[in-house]
Amino acid sequence: MDYIKLFILSMVPIIELRGAVPLGIAMDLNPVYLYITCVIGSSIVAVPVVLLFRQAIDFFRHRKYFNKVIRRVDRKIEGRAKKLKAASIIGLIIFVGVPLPTTGSWSGAALASIFKMRIKDALLGIFIGNAIAGVIMMTVSLHLSEGINMGTLLIGLVVVIAGIFAIIKKKRNNKLNASFNDNERVEA
Question: What is the pTM of this model?
Fold first, then answer.
């Protein structure tokens, strides 16, 4: 029952995973189950939030007072689209992954919607960012509550981050190879 409460709490804006993890540690819950519960809860909420923010932006785009602001933002984004697209998923991961106030799933979903990220990329970035934030919050919470060996937990964080970046690099290489193969077919 406690895990269900923390699952729901990790979906709440502002509190999210950043508040649920320390609370779960204070409740003396299993850190592994707590981590999984909070990361999933905080990430699942991103799906409807991304979709709703996109709908809200489209709604306001057709309203007189908001149209000018949205068009101005769109022009700035389109002008830097290539740079933003290349850095957008990494930026989103960093934004969500650093556990500071207002940098969680909800804010990440809003940014992904504003920057018109593909839904798949937005959700992947938010999930990876939540995984990183979860490790950071777990490390800090365990260190403060039990005096766990900080070095071991930091090594775990480095391994998680390295694995995430390896996945992203592989994904980009696959896209580049596919693009290169498409260009070869066009030339032939």
Answer: 0.71
